[in-house]
Specification:
Chain lengths: 115, 109
């Protein structure tokens, strides 16, 4: 069964701390994504990557950065966490074909609380 | 701007039928997706529509009208395990996904 694994399900951090959220997929997918999910809002795309060492800004990249050194791993970095970054973070992956029913496979999410 | 609208919450009875609507206004259209998300879990794919009409998959069906910017997800013979949030997403002209806020479906015995 295909999997996207997010290493931390729950994190509590303090304002100003550096935060790493890790995501690993075992499907050899080219495309990986980081979303945040907040109550009353649709999923919002933070960053995505189409290949190793490539990254593209999504709709809300401010305050975040990413790293993709290996095809299977896509990391989200909060350089200096702030309270408004308290959220559920979802990682997803999909294969290269962008048309048709190109289905996203999601991880279970990382719930981050910034105090 | 781009917008996806879904009801925030719906309640239905076990064994019944429920229809969850989704209306959209996007810059272009390249398909509409429905995902199911149980509380605390990953969203999982339910259906994909790109042409007008009804797509049936077991107890779940999804309908699309591109001219009306409208879709619905129909769930039949509801089971308690169908209690979840249902997310509607549209792929726009740039092949980016625009997501609705989701509809929380509560199933009562």
């Amino acid at each position: 069964d295909v999997k996207v694994t997010q290493s931390s399900r729950y994190l509590v951090k303090r304002t100003g701390e550096k935060v790493f959220l890790e995501c690993v997929q075992d499907m050899d997918h080219e495309n990986m994504f980081w979303y945040r999910q907040d109550p009353g809002l649709g999923l919002r795309l933070i960053y995505f990557s189409y290949d190793v060492k490539m990254k593209e800004k999504g709709d809300i990249p401010e305050g975040y950065s990413v790293s993709r050194e290996k095809k299977e791993r896509f990391s989200l970095i909060l350089e200096s966490a702030s309270t408004n970054q308290t959220s559920m973070y979802l990682c997803a992956s999909t294969d290269q074909e962008v048309s048709g029913a190109n289905v996203l496979t999601f991880g279970a999410g990382s719930r981050l609380t910034v105090l | 701007g781009q917008n996806i609208d879904q009801p925030t919450e719906m309640t239905a009875t076990e064994g019944a039928i429920v229809q969850i609507n989704c209306t959209y206004q996007t810059s272009g259209f390249n398909g509409l997706f429905w995902y199911q998300q149980h509380a605390g879990e990953a969203p999982t794919f339910l259906s994909y529509n790109v042409l007008d009409g009804l797509e049936e998959k077991g107890r779940f069906s999804s309908f699309l009208s591109r001219s009306k910017g409208y879709s619905y997800l129909l769930l039949k013979e509801l089971q308690m395990k169908d209690s979840a949030s249902y997310l509607c997403a549209v792929r726009d002209s740039n092949y980016q996904l625009i997501w609705g806020a989701g509809t929380k479906l509560i199933i009562k015995p």
